[in-house]
Amino acid sequence: MAPITLSKPIELRAKETGEVLVSITELTFREPEFGDLAAFDQGSGKVDGLIHLAARLAGIEVANMRKLCLADSMRVIDVIQGFLPAGLLTGAIAQPSSQAPSGSPQASSGGAPQS
């Protein structure tokens, strides 16, 4: 996968001086393996789970992933969601779409039955 260039780099600073030791300007995510999904469960919610999984796939600490600005984090979420099955984020089990009618009535927009 192509790296994501960050609009605002993640800066790792020295505790004593505040000097920038490392500036992360881009993130590259590897494709997840089945065991990587355990990182998603380490979070306290869906967004936190995405942060943990993103950090693992990018090879950086969770605390550093949390430093992303909102615009960059939205781009990261898009990338991570592209790897995941829909049910992992929604709680629903993704099932293939069926072309057969469901037998349930369809909502109408005018209140009157449609012919």
The rough form would be described as globular
- Look at the structure and give the mean pLDDT: 81
Decide which structural class fits the backbone. Answer: alpha+beta
Q: In terms of per-residue confidence, which ranges show pLDDT below 50 for 5 or more consecutive residues?
A: 93-98
What are the SSEs and their pairings?
Elements: E1 4-13, E2 20-27, H1 37-41, H2 46-58, H3 62-65, H4 70-83, H5 86-90
Antiparallel strand pairs: 1-2
Question: What can be said about this structure in brief?
Answer:
The protein is α+β, with helices and mostly antiparallel strands. It has one domain (4-89).
Key descriptive features of the protein:
36% helix; Phage_tail_E/E; 5 helices; Phage tail assembly chaperone protein, E, or 41 or 14; 115 residues; two-stranded antiparallel sheet
Overall description:
By secondary structure, this protein is α+β, with helices and mostly antiparallel strands. It has one domain. 36% of the residues lie in helices and 16% in strands. The protein is built from five helices and two strands. It has helices spanning 37-41, 46-58, 62-65, 70-83, 86-90; strands at 4-13, 20-27. The protein has a two-stranded antiparallel sheet with strand order 1-2. A hairpin with a 6-residue loop joins β1 (4-13) and β2. The longest helix has 14 residues, at 70-83. The protein is globular, with a radius of gyration of 21 Å. The relative contact order is 0.15. The model is unreliable at 93-98 (pLDDT under 50).
